[in-house]
Design goal:
Helices cover 40% and strands 15% of the residues. It has 2 domains: 226 residues, Rossmann fold; 287 residues, Ribokinase (UDP-N-acetylmuramoyl-L-alanine:D-glutamate ligase), CATH 3.40.1190.20. Helix 8 links the parallel strand 10 and strand 11. An 11-stranded mixed beta sheet has the order 1-9-18-17-16-15-14-13-10-11-12, sandwiched between helices. Strands 4-3-2-5-6-7-8 form a 7-stranded parallel beta sheet, with helices on one face.
């Protein structure tokens, strides 16, 4: 698990290095520039002296890093054009020092050109560069980019060049992972510590590959910091897998009960149940409308199907609830919601079930989340429950606008799980897991091929299976979410993201576990 830090925490690292470790700030900037230089060449080893670099520098320390980086590139034989967005008189401190040094290099290196920004026409002077480096604002973005930065970033994004950001892509508000106009990086070399805002929402979309650069202070500062945010690594998914002991039998290998499906959406139930069975569940039962029971039975891998009298209506009704009490008590985990529908009687049935069976491990998805929307969840004890909404479902659940959710995603997720003592799997790009203490675990796998009907049903089944097989819900979620996404990544690699289907995810999932075992062990 990789700890992630807030922008304030990382900014204070500079202060710690200067005041406690007594490292001069100019040395920190020099260390940063060297680290960025090596990170670029390590990520793109094909870059040789035929590639031209265009470095766009702001007036602050981010710009200073850019000036220092330009010097290291020139010394190594690259051609560099530096576009300074500030006049020399507006520079100060270490940024000014590095600019003066760089300016003196101009007289001795014909491959170096320093340009002062006067208008957008100046951007044409770096348009022929194969690599563009963003050293404009760094962590300095707090709101919408203003003139001239907004137009500069738009123009830079249009250039057909490899794009690299120093520390943070310009335009990205780190605290909210938001922004209207953001530099679209292929690589972000972030300094000192990994920042949470680079790994979700707009941060994930615009940061490209994120690598950590060093300012030369080691880990002594960050090792003492408390954080609530973590990035999931492949090793985490492997070590948190349920353990299969030699003396297992089917009834202590995890029992899953699935309440899902209706006339209009029978497939959701099938995907949920089958994915639970192929991810290690010892025994599985599906509660399904009698009138369409054969649809599910014909597609079940090994689970049993318990039909309930639906009078050919094809949906769950209140009169059916009393039939499932023994099955709920029998199960180690209960998945409820996929494809159930939103008939008023179905909604009432869901609420009745959740109220009646407190402390059972429910995995609440899809239409069961709908039943809890508009703050209906406040009337139910959700302890030990896992909710798996996508963004719009979660916004409806807590009665906020989708824009507000995206601008405050981590905080709203934390608030919800702390309030309800539940677990939240907030599906998106990426999916974020929240525990009852408010810690957030950001998934590092997955691709756009998962944006398809049925993908979430498969995830619900896998989660239900892992939760049924072991006591620790948090570990189950970390492993299930990552492996589900890794399966999609392996399909994308071997075929393409276009061919990712729920059934293919189910078929390939066991192979993903074996792939991970071989890759790490």
């Amino acid at each position: 698990m990789i700890p992630l830090f807030s922008s304030d925490q990382v900014r204070s690292a500079d202060s710690f290095a200067i005041n406690e470790l007594k490292i001069p700030s100019i040395v920190l900037m020099e260390n940063a520039a060297k680290s960025i230089f090596h990170a670029i060449l390590e990520k793109y080893p094909y870059l040789d002296q035929s590639y031209r670099f265009g470095i766009v520098c702001g007036k602050g320390n981010n710009g200073g890093d850019g000036f220092a980086l330009a010097r290291h590139l020139i010394i190594s034989g690259f051609s560099v054009k530096v576009l300074s967005l500030a006049d020399e008189r507006d520079l100060k401190g270490d940024a000014l020092t590095n600019f003066i040094v760089l300016k003196n290099f101009v007289n001795h290196y014909s491959e170096l050109d320093v340009i002062f920004y006067q208008s957008q026409n100046n951007l044409n002077k770096i348009a022929d560069c194969e690599v563009i480096v963003d050293a404009i604002l760094g962590t300095g973005t707090t709101g919408t980019l203003k003139e001239p930065y907004n137009h500069i970033v738009e123009k830079l994004n249009d250039l057909p060049a490899l794009k690299i950001s120093i520390d943070v892509p310009t335009g990205l508000n780190l605290d909210k992972a938001s922004g209207d106009i953001i530099f679209n990086s292929n690589l972000t070399v972030t300094l000192a510590g990994l920042k949470t805002g680079l790994f979700y929402e707009k941060g994930k979309l615009f940061s490209g590959k994120v690598v950590k650069g060093s300012i030369g202070m080691g880990e002594c500062y960050f090792g003492s910091l408390k954080t609530d945010d973590y990035l999931i690594e492949p090793e985490d998914a492997l070590i948190h897998l349920p353990q299969k002991k030699a003396d297992l039998h089917k009834y202590n290998a995890g029992k899953v009960f699935v309440i899902a499906g209706s006339t209009n959406m029978p497939g959701a139930a099938v995907f949920t149940m089958n994915s639970a069975m192929i991810s290690g569940t010892g025994a599985g039962k599906l509660f399904f409308p009698e009138s369409i029971k054969s649809i599910a039975q014909n597609q079940m891998n090994s689970a049993t199907v318990s039909g309930y009298a639906d009078e050919n209506l094809g949906f769950l009704r209140l009169k059916n609830v009393e039939l499932i009490e023994k099955n709920i008590e029998w199960a180690d985990a209960i998945a409820i919601g996929p494809g159930l529908g939103r008939e008023s009687e179905t909604v009432d049935s869901i609420l009745t079930i959740l109220k009646k069976f407190k402390k059972k491990k429910f995995i609440i998805d899809a239409d069961a989340i709908f039943a809890l929307s508009d703050k209906n969840y406040k009337n139910i004890d959700l302890s030990n429950c896992v909710l798996t909404p996508h963004h719009q479902e979660f916004a409806n659940l807590i009665s906020v606008d989708i824009k507000e959710l995206k601008n405050n995603l981590l905080q709203l997720g934390r608030d919800f799980t702390k309030e309800t003592n539940s677990f939240l799997v907030l599906k998106g790009a990426p999916t974020v897991i929240f525990n009852p203490e408010g810690e957030a675990f950001i998934n590092s796998a997955g691709n756009s091929g998962l944006a398809k009907f049925g993908s979430g049903d498969v995830l619900t089944g896998i989660i239900s299976s892992f939760v049924a097989q072991q006591e620790d819900i948090e570990k189950s979620l970390i492993s299930a979410v990552y492996l589900h996404s890794l399966t999609a990544d392996l399909i994308q690699k071997n075929e393409s993201e276009f061919g990712i289907t729920p059934q293919k995810l189910i078929d390939e999932f066991p192979k993903t576990i074996q792939f991970l075992r071989k890759s790490i062990v």
